[in-house]
């Protein structure tokens, strides 16, 4: 399969290495020029990537390693976007001229970003939309160990997803499970967005442990050290707000723990605390600063979207709102209320109209509608 992976951070490199090790034709695309520059330079000069960890060992050839979408996007069957969700508007604008209806575009994490890609493509001369598939979270826990070298320490065995346009989940399951792993369809992309575990676990785990994150006296490991009984109380109340919003969106009231066990172990039975502790025992240390994607991505993209959906559907979200305000106070350079992903940013019509399209697919008149322009 011809695959282009957009993003050369740990998530993109992990998937690139695994797919290359399985014999796929894998190209890498970097769009920014700030982060991971040395890693990209080595990947480009060697046109290969070194993999270590639980998915195998070795150095595997890559196709093109480029900064030009025109070189790698048009010929790809599968485009995997591994940029933090804050950058979706930029990525959508850069890729839109080169995407076509025969492709599948995977957003991981999604946070309903496919709606931004649809907006970017709904302009004069735009072609029909690709199939977008949004997933809850990254398939692998990984780290870049040195430029050009990625190590995978754990994997998710199950990958809940939803498609946009709706009604095409079978295509992802039938054609891409061999690439992505076990794929389980959900009702719509907003359900998938709210089940991103980082919306709950990253935000609460960091914001409720600020002094430990910043302490020079000890090494902080969020998953192992960050969740005392009282902190779990906050996480579970935030999770309850999420479930209330899910209910208003026509999705099941599934808990964080149920989704966590399904993704991580492929089943929903058993003691959730023991399951979390098992996962935590393998998780890496960190983070070691508040200005980290656990906050700068998951607060505005996750909590911001939860608040916006709650506001539109008549659900109060006081815990979510408090964490948004607290995060903004902890990082004076950010106003996460202003940076938040909102339904108004994603969609120009009513929430009811959006839910109809996300669950039933667009009507013929929707395809040409200017409401997405």
Description:
The protein has 373 residues and is an alpha/beta fold. The protein has 2 domains: 2-193, 3-Layer(aba) Sandwich (Rossmann fold), CATH 3.40.50.720; 198-341, Orthogonal Bundle (N-(1-d-carboxylethyl)-l-norvaline Dehydrogenase, domain 2). Helices cover 47% and strands 16% of the residues. It has helices at residues 10-21, 37-46, 69-72, 88-95, 114-121, 169-180, 189-194, 198-207, 210-213, 222-225, 229-248, 256-265, 272-282, 293-296, 298-313, 318-330, 336-339, 343-346, 351-360, 364-367; strands at 2-6, 25-29, 48-53, 58-61, 65-66, 78-81, 104-107, 131-135, 140-146, 149-155, 158-164, 182-185. The strands form 2 sheets. An 8-stranded mixed beta sheet has the order 5-2-1-6-7-8-11-12. It has a 4-stranded mixed beta sheet with strand order 4-3-10-9. Strand 7, helix 5 (114-121) and strand 8 (131-135) form a beta-alpha-beta unit.
Any idea what the radius of gyration is? 20 Å
- The H-level CATH homologous superfamily of the largest domain, spelled out, is NAD(P)-binding Rossmann-like Domain
Helix content: 40-55%
**How many DSSP helices?**
20
Q: Tell me, what is the CATH class of the largest domain? A: Alpha Beta
Mean pLDDT: 92
CATH architecture of the largest domain: 3-Layer(aba) Sandwich
> Could you please say which CATH topology of the largest domain applies here?
Rossmann fold
> Spatial order of the strands in the main sheet?
5-2-1-6-7-8-11-12
Concise summary:
The chain is built from 20 helices and 12 strands.
List strands and helices in order, with pairings:
Elements: E1 2-6, H1 10-21, E2 25-29, H2 37-46, E3 48-53, E4 58-61, E5 65-66, H3 69-72, E6 78-81, H4 88-95, E7 104-107, H5 114-121, E8 131-135, E9 140-146, E10 149-155, E11 158-164, H6 169-180, E12 182-185, H7 189-194, H8 198-207, H9 210-213, H10 222-225, H11 229-248, H12 256-265, H13 272-282, H14 293-296, H15 298-313, H16 318-330, H17 336-339, H18 343-346, H19 351-360, H20 364-367
Parallel strand pairs: 1-2, 1-6, 2-5, 3-10, 6-7, 7-8, 11-12
Antiparallel strand pairs: 3-4, 8-11, 9-10
Helix pairs in contact: 4-5, 8-11, 8-15, 11-15, 12-13, 15-16
